[in-house]
């Protein structure tokens, strides 16, 4: 039985659900939790309307409350006996009525009131319902909701091992714990970050952590620019504000300070380094997690410890000569591992003394250690030379990679080390230190050679810098990087400005890719350009976003001061790569990657309702008689269905339009083709479970379906298989699973049975379950093309061994594991083969999704497999689309319709139907082939179909999402292409010969009148079985045609590899306007299928 769409008022409903008095109806008394009846309210075009569903069989108030609770709403209301609505509050314009006004009995409980016409029975929960922050798991406690940092990530380590679609707090905390981190944070519903501190200005937030975890809808996983943060162990004593942990509860203070003491060490002061030596030289360590506490522990055997450059720790019992006190304010760099405390600066140490010890007298450095001369080193790597003495940077190190200290260090040793690591510059300092890089940073300056006065411990004839002085050796002249700025141009990309991100918890640009520790502007911009995006932006130094310039306006993002984009690109330190929640943004200013047409007249085509159907079809095809065959999930469908129906288009508008047919097993998710026998029998193989998976069913048009699994069956049971007529006329069956979500069937078998068992294909087993309903086609070269998940290959048509593996099929810009076949479902067609058939056959695949968060793809890809080195060409689509259908049209274009904007194929796994049609014209330049067509008003999601009819229209059917939002769809539509709306006359023709041999010449047909619109052409479209985005049998051929007046001839395609044997729609076009077509057979029945199967239980037409 059909589900009623939420909000629909049916006159029959009002007649069948007569109002009762309230004395006959009783409000439920045992409501869950703290839910209570609130009253009867008027409907004011959504009194409450944040979520809704309808159930004309089982609606009750309790069911509605459960539905709203699961979605976190505190108000639930029933209306019209069968409709449920949820919300956060009641509309202020709604009026509370007498309870007696809500007098319609619930469909699922005739003793309860479920609102009335334009009236709602409303219930309210006085306590929060639905999802809540996880209080703690895996030894971690919930610290609270935090904002992202202003100068980088609040938690700096991103976890990439958890699929975004399955993210939970438990998985994130476990990953951080395994990696040894103290903090874990979840963000954007599917992202996990770890760290040992709250970094970069991240702070408690009073709101914004409202996104459900993708893997657990009962808990929150942060939000846009918001993290739910967890800390290892129990929380410290806290104070709270509105349930949010206040700043005082964060383990680290907010502002950087110089603590008065660290354990038993007392603040001694800020000091300079010694003359030509370290101030403290007994022991040294360095780490990017440096804290004062870590340094004090390392130096616990010494009287003093000092921290410099945020990350370097020095120990000693005395200060070397030349180290003097400096103003405390000079020690201004925050600790690398704890940015709330200071850890020295360039040539400045934050020094602590054990128990406040007074300093002993300083120790003079030996005269042998310092010299004013600067002899040139010999034995340097080829091309390397000494480049002078340089001062350390004023805001950080002059060179950004530090090697371990060495007592055998020298200019030669350090240069050799840096060269081996791929660097072009080396620097020695304090004798034992070696630094490397490809540029000199942080405003360091070249100074007198005499200032680099410390002898190298490994070669006293060389100088190895001094305190705050670096002896530079380089290959060529060292590059000096100026203070980083946004790169103004990169090729044809132009810098647009610093923009906001995460407005209202939404990304400004949708697609995110990560380039940790290596990001340059070019990396990000090249990636976006490859996939056809004309806007690119970089954030947090390592995150690349791709989109379109219009996203700026639609997201509400505004341009911000340049100072807010302040994070240096780690792979190109002269450039800026965004900021915290700020995007360094570029627009493409070269030749546009795409140019779509948006016609507003007949060129957009139109949708029309054809008929209200009697079934929700899963598979649709047209018989060679021009009638439409519908197959549905009989064994699992409504009890009054037979599973098979035939629609006579000539009887639409009468009660005789549908003819009931019959099946014995369930064709739910089977494969199908039209056989090349002389009556065009239809074949389906496989199915839902048990015997159905072995099902091999035949339909002789005009008769009924025949099957007997004991006499005719597949060798291997298959659910979600594909089928194809081979060049030799046999039936190729590939792939599937043994049943519903069961083991893979990674094999190929042939019908009729050849005596050979199914052939195992390791690549099908390896790619299960993302390879179901693979796209298959006979190639003109003689091979068989197979596309599955994100791979493609060509098979030998006799042995089925792999002849060629194609490059990986591009998916999403940020995810090469995105796929094109079920359940990551796209749609595929073959591009036109035009006389004289010299161009290699093209394959077009549009849409799909990825296996993580289910982001639908917004591109098409195409290739020509028989090319010597086939490559995939990427073309943008105007919107995201998973579960599309594609129908070849007589004029050589393709209609793209149906599907959803997000999710996967399957029951309840997608949302936001894509109601817009597209037209793809392969004769136009790449990037300009798509025209945005008309919209339908009907959601066509999982289990929808599209086939081209003989009259040139496209029949659109089905949709069975089972998502409690969009109904099972019985209505059948047609899409009317522009060639039927342009006002031009349609041609007519007569064709006597409808059974052709390959390469047959001069097959005669006669026009009803002379051409009126332009050239006369012919198109042949293969007979199609449409299911799950797979148009099995689809093929487009444009043969040689000659006309003189109204007398014309057409030549048959040359071979079985150009046109496999079978039935084709034959269209005559006058200036692109098609006549009503007829079916012709090409190549006969070479496999003798007309005599198959050899069983008395099946009707056989003969050969």
Note down, in words, how this protein is organized.
- This protein is mostly beta strands.
- The protein is globular.
- The strands form 21 sheets. Strands 19, 20, 21, 22, 23, 24 and 27 form a seven-stranded antiparallel sheet that branches.
- 52% of the residues are buried.
- Helix content is 6%, strand content 35%.
- The longest helix has 10 residues, at 61-70.
- It holds the Pfam family WSC.
- This is WSC domain-containing protein.
- It comes from Pseudoneurospora amorphoporcata.
List the helices and strands and how they pair.
Elements: H1 11-16, E1 35-42, E2 51-54, H2 61-70, E3 75-79, E4 83-87, E5 96-97, E6 105-106, E7 109-113, E8 119-125, E9 136-137, E10 140-147, E11 157-159, H3 169-178, E12 183-187, E13 191-195, E14 212-213, E15 216-220, E16 226-232, E17 240-241, E18 244-245, E19 261-262, E20 265-272, E21 283-286, H4 292-298, E22 304-308, E23 312-316, E24 325-326, E25 334-335, E26 338-342, E27 348-354, E28 384-391, E29 401-402, H5 411-420, E30 425-429, E31 433-437, E32 446-447, E33 455-456, E34 459-463, E35 469-475, E36 489-490, E37 493-500, E38 511-514, H6 521-530, E39 535-539, E40 543-547, H7 550-555, E41 559-560, E42 568-569, E43 572-576, E44 582-588, E45 606-612, E46 619-622, E47 628-631, E48 643-647, E49 658-662, E50 671-674, E51 682-685, E52 696-699, E53 705-706, E54 722-725, E55 731-734, E56 747-751, E57 759-760, H8 762-767, E58 775-778, E59 783-788, E60 791-796, E61 802-805, E62 827-830, E63 833-834, E64 843-846, E65 859-863, E66 873-876, E67 885-888, E68 894-897, E69 900-903, E70 910-913, E71 916-920, E72 930-935, ...
Parallel strand pairs: 63-82, 77-87
Antiparallel strand pairs: 1-5, 1-8, 2-4, 3-4, 3-8, 6-7, 9-10, 10-16, 11-13, 12-13, 12-16, 14-15, 17-18, 19-20, 20-24, 20-27, 21-23, 22-23, 22-27, 25-26, 28-32, 28-35, 29-31, 30-31, 30-35, 33-34, 36-37, 37-41, 37-44, 38-40, 39-40, 39-44, 42-43, 45-75, 46-47, 46-80, 47-48, 48-49, 50-51, 51-52, ...
């Amino acid at each position: 039985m059909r589900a009623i769409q939420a909000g629909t008022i049916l006159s029959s409903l009002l007649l069948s659900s007569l109002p009762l008095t309230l004395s006959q109806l009783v409000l439920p008394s045992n409501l869950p939790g703290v839910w209570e009846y609130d009253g009867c309210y008027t409907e004011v075009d959504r009194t409450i309307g944040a979520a809704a569903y309808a159930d004309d069989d089982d609606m009750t108030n309790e069911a509605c409350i459960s539905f709203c609770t699961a979605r976190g709403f505190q108000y639930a209301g029933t209306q019209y006996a069968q409709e449920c609505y949820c919300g956060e509050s009641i509309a202020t314009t709604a009026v509370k009525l007498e309870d007696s006004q809500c007098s319609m009995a619930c469909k699922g409980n005739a003793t309860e009131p479920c609102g009335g016409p334009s009236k709602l029975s409303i219930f309210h929960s006085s306590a929060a319902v639905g999802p809540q922050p996880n209080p703690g798991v895996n030894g971690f406690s919930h610290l609270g909701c935090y904002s992202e940092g202003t100068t980088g990530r609040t938690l700096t380590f991103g976890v990439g091992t958890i699929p975004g679609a399955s993210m939970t707090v438990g998985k994130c905390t476990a990953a951080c714990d395994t990696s040894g981190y103290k903090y874990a944070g979840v963000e954007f519903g599917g992202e996990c970050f770890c760290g040992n501190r709250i970094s970069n200005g991240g702070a408690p937030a009073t709101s914004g952590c409202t996104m459900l975890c993708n893997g657990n809808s009962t808990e929150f996983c942060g939000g846009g620019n918001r993290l739910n943060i967890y800390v290892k162990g129990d929380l410290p004593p806290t104070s709270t504000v509105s349930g949010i942990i206040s700043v005082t509860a964060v383990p680290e203070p907010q502002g950087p300070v110089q603590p008065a003491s660290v354990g038993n060490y007392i603040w001694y002061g800020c000091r300079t380094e010694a003359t030509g030596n370290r101030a403290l030289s007994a022991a040294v360590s360095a780490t990017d997690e440096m804290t004062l506490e870590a340094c004090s522990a390392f130096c616990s055997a010494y009287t003093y410890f000092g921290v410099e450059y945020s990350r370097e720790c020095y120990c000693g019992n005395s200060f070397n000569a030349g180290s003097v006190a400096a103003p405390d304010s000079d020690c201004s760099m925050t600790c690398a591992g704890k940015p709330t405390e200071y850890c020295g600066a360039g040539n400045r140490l934050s020094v602590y003394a054990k128990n406040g010890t007074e300093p002993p007298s300083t120790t003079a450095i030996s005269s042998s250690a310092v010299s004013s001369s600067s002899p040139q080193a010999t034995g340097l790597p080829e091309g390397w030379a000494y480049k002078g003495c340089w001062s350390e940077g004023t805001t950080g190190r002059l060179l950004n990679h530090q090697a371990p200290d060495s007592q055998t260090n020298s200019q030669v040793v350090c240069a050799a080390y840096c060269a081996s690591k791929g660097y072009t510059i080396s620097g020695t300092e304090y004798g034992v230190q070696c630094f490397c890089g490809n540029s000199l940073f942080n405003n360091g300056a070249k100074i007198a050679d005499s200032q680099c006065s410390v002898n190298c411990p490994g070669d006293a004839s060389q100088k190895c810098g001094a305190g705050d002085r670096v002896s530079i050796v380089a290959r060529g002249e060292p590059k000096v990087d100026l203070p980083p700025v946004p790169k103004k141009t990169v090729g044809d990309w132009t810098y647009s400005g610093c923009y906001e991100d995460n407005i209202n918890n939404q990304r400004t640009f949708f697609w995110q890719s990560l380039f940790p520790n290596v990001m340059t502007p070019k990396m990000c911009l090249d990636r976006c350009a490859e996939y056809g995006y004309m806007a690119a932006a970089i954030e947090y130094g390592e995150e690349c976003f791709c989109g379109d310039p219009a996203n700026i306006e639609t997201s509400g993002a505004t341009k911000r001061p340049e100072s807010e984009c302040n994070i240096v690109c780690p792979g190109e330190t002269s450039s800026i790569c965004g900021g915290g929640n700020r995007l360094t943004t570029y627009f493409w200013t070269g030749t546009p990657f795409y140019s779509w047409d948006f016609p507003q007249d007949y060129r957009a085509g139109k949708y029309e309702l054809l008929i209200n159907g009697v079934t929700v079809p899963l598979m649709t095809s047209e018989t060679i008689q021009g009638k439409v065959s519908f197959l549905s999930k009989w064994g699992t469908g409504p009890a009054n269905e037979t599973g098979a129906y035939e629609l006579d288009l000539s009887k639409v508008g009468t009660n005789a339009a549908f003819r009931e047919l019959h099946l014995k097993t369930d064709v739910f998710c089977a494969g199908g083709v039209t056989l090349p026998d002389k009556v065009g029998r239809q074949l389906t193989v496989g199915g839902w479970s048990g015997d159905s998976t072995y099902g091999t069913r035949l339909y002789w048009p005009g008769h009924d379906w025949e099957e007997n699994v004991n006499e005719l069956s597949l060798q291997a049971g298959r659910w979600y298989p594909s089928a194809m007529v081979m060049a030799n006329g046999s039936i190729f069956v590939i792939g599937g699973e043994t049943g519903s979500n069961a083991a893979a069937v990674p094999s190929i078998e042939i019908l009729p049975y050849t005596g050979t068992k199914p052939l195992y294909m390791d690549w099908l087993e390896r790619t299960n379950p993302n390879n179901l309903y693979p796209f298959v086609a006979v190639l003109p070269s003689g091979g068989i093309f197979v596309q599955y998940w994100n791979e493609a290959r060509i098979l030998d048509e006799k042995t089925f061994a792999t002849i060629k593996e194609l490059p990986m099929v591009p998916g999403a810009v940020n995810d090469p594991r995105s796929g094109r076949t079920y359940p990551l479902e796209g749609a595929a067609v073959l591009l036109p083969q035009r006389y004289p058939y010299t161009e290699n056959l093209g394959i077009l695949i549009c849409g799909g999704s990825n296996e993580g968060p289910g982001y639908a793809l917004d591109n098409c890809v195409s290739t020509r497999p028989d090319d010597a080195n086939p490559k995939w060409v990427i073309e943008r689509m105007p919107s995201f689309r998973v579960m599309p259908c594609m129908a070849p049209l007589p004029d050589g274009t393709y209609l793209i319709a149906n599907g959803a904007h997000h999710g996967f194929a399957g029951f309840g796994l997608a949302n936001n139907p894509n109601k817009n049609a597209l037209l793809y014209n392969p004769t136009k330049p790449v990037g300009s082939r798509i025209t945005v067509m008309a919209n339908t008003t009907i959601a066509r999601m999982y289990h929808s179909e599209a086939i081209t009819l003989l009259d040139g229209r496209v029949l659109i059917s089905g949709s069975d999402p089972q998502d409690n939002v969009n109904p099972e769809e019985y209505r059948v539509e047609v899409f009317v292409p522009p060639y039927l709306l342009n006002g031009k006359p349609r041609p007519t023709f007569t064709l006597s010969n409808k059974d052709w041999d390959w390469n047959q010449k001069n097959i005669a047909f006669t026009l009803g009148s002379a051409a009126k619109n332009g050239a006369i052409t012919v198109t042949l479209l293969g007979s199609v079985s449409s299911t799950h985005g797979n148009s099995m049998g689809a093929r487009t051929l444009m043969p040689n045609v000659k006309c003189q007046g109204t007398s014309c001839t057409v030549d048959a395609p040359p071979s079985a590899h150009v046109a496999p044997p079978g039935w084709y729609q034959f269209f005559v076009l006058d200036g692109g306007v098609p006549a009503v077509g007829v079916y012709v057979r090409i190549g006969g029945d070479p496999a003798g299928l007309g005599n198959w199967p050899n069983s008395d239980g099946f009707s056989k037409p003969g050969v």
